[in-house]
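Sample pair:
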Amino acid sequence: MAGEGGSDDALVLIAAAATELTKLTQRHKFEVLDHLLAMTRLEADEQLRARSRRKLS
């Protein structure tokens, strides 16, 4: 999207949003949503690590 940060910025934002939403899912005991958001956070973190490794190569 024009005017917004790059892919790394998007991944950081996604990970942060997933973390915040996880707090809601845990408070309200939405177990499946909690699990899906945890997977989202893990995937965003992994994508960031993979992008960092490629940049260092």
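The longest helix spans residues 31-56.
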